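Teaching assistant's notes for section 4

Start the section by putting this record on the projector. Ask students to predict, before seeing the second block, whether Transmembrane protein 135 N-terminal domain-containing protein will look compact or extended. Collect guesses on the board.
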Amino acid sequence: MSPSAGGCFDADGGCACLAQQNGDAETAANCKSGDSYCEHCSYGSADSSSFPSFSCSSSSLWLDSTRLREYGKLSRILVASAKGFTIGAGLKGGLSLFSVLAGLKRRKALASLGKKGVITNRDAISMALKETLRYGLFLGTFAGTFVSIDEIIGNMAGHRRTARWRALLAGALAGPSMLLTGLNTQHKTLAIYIFMRAAVLASRCGIKSKRLGHICKPLTWSCGDIFLMCLSSSQILSAYVLKQDSLPPSFRSFLNTHGGKDTVILEGLKSFVSGMPSSNKFKAVEKYYSAMGSTVKLDPQMKTPCTIIHGNQSCGGHFLSFLIQGYKRALPVYLPVYLIPALIVHREGLMNRPYEILARGLLGTARSSLFLSAYCASAWMWTCLTSRTFKKINIPLVALATFLTGLALAIEKKSRRIEISLYCLSRGIESFFSCMTDLGYLPPSLNFKRADVIVFSISTSIIMHCYAQEREVFRSKYLNVLDWVFGVPPPPCETPRCKNGNKC
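Reveal the predicted structure now:
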């Protein structure tokens, strides 16, 4: 045997451990004093479990290296948990902070009116802190559980032998950590969104496949993201006007803020579109505009809802004024969206080229804010234009008008379009099935308890498998975040024989 840096090898360049496994005890026993420890054994690969009695002469070096590697594995688990907690608490904390600040003025106004049931600012801050802690524990536990199971399976059954399925199982077993956000808190939207992300990764793997490439070819269409956004908008915005209770409360609040319309106007529009105009609701709309300093009279026989939507203002004038107001509302939303990832993903670049990265962040904020404001403004514009074109308005025409609203996504950067469309698609799917269930088309028995956890676990299983085995299907920025949290996954083959270029 000839000693080599990092392991004990036989005359053919193979590992001495493999020699003992194959029955060649003489070769395995000829490890000379002073040889370094065997990396093959100390790393705990697939073959090392078969010959635990073998050790090199320099046992102290081997033991020290083993302890170092065990410490490294424990350190990886603790660091992954800490980083997961940081991301979860940072993202949720940032959103909660914005929500608290945005609601300060509204809560103060409601409290001054003497309305009961209005939460105080202290209660709002307390709830935000609890939510921040829960999401931090959720992602911290997810990261720690995944890394722990990954290391345990690798040590017990071998890293090389389990490489193809280890991350798949670890991702599935880490999924139930979602329960830490609250045992009675449903996260259907998050689960569906993560499932959409997993489906995208699986489709990219399919595109690479010779067997499934032709089936997945439509997924490569350049405008597919905009089409998905149009489909999502048709369901989401129709539900926003006609059936808001099918939307998640947080998302409904988001739409009510950026939709820019009072609930009185939405109720009047809903009754008009449904073909059941209510004189009481029309009077409420007229009273609202009167309080805003405008005199509006609604004709029950009118054909278009333009007067309900924007009073005496013209359709074009309303679009421009709403666009400006919507842009001001959108800016605070996208500042943390671009700022927080810049601190995490581009943390090293901020030290070297801070002005360039900050300029890109500000440009992205301005562009995304324009998209959101144009999206909301065009929703009302298309509704007015569609009703004027057909001289009437009904539910199918509302669905058509809101479908066209999705075209505003073209303003966004190409790399962000698929993210936004998938997010909205998950919201649309949840709203659609909620509507179908309420209408009686889906039996209540299909509403499995905590189905969100099951879907989330399946999705994370797929995502983490792709992370370990199909890394090229990830965009670089997401891969950087995953590597930062979980650590770069070990290659499928780690033995010295493989490292020397020989076939495993």
